[in-house]
Amino acid sequence: MAARIWPLVKLATKVTIAGGAVYVACDSGLLGNSEQGSEALEKAKAAVPPALEEWMKYFGLEAQRPTMPRIEFSPVNSWNAGVRWTISSLSDAPTRVSEYTSQGLQYIKDLVK
């Protein structure tokens, strides 16, 4: 009987952990728009170092930890840069195709000679 229940318990545990992770991500704003993502990143930057210090003291680890690197990352700007690059590439596509086609035809003409 226990052999049949054990896989069900494992599956329920995995589903619960995955559901909890999705809930926390939604609740903290990670799955929202870019403004909410930026706010969540700022909250994480503010919360992680004190929590790390607390856990190090709890476990008796007084070793010197490296300083946290400064992250100068704005998801809003990165998103906009990606959108601009994509639109620019799409607008240049017809010109690039005609250039590559003419180069390919010239190459074939040179081979045929």
Kindly summarize this structure in a few lines.
The chain is an all-alpha fold.
Helices and strands, in order, run as: HHH
Discrete helix count: 3
Specify the overall morphology. elongated
Radius of gyration, CA atoms, in whole angstroms? 27 Å
Number of strands: 0
Proportion of beta-strand residues = under 5%
Distance between the termini: 80 Å
Structural class: mainly alpha
Summarize the biggest pleated sheet. Answer: none
What is the helix fraction of residues, given as a range? over 70%
Low-confidence stretches: none
Oligomer: single chain
Mean of residue pLDDT?
Answer: 83
Protein name: MICOS complex subunit MIC13
Function: Component of the MICOS complex, a large protein complex of the mitochondrial inner membrane that plays crucial roles in the maintenance of crista junctions, inner membrane architecture, and formation of contact sites to the outer membrane.
Family: Belongs to the MICOS complex subunit Mic13 family.
Keywords: Membrane, Mitochondrion, Mitochondrion inner membrane, Transmembrane, Transmembrane helix
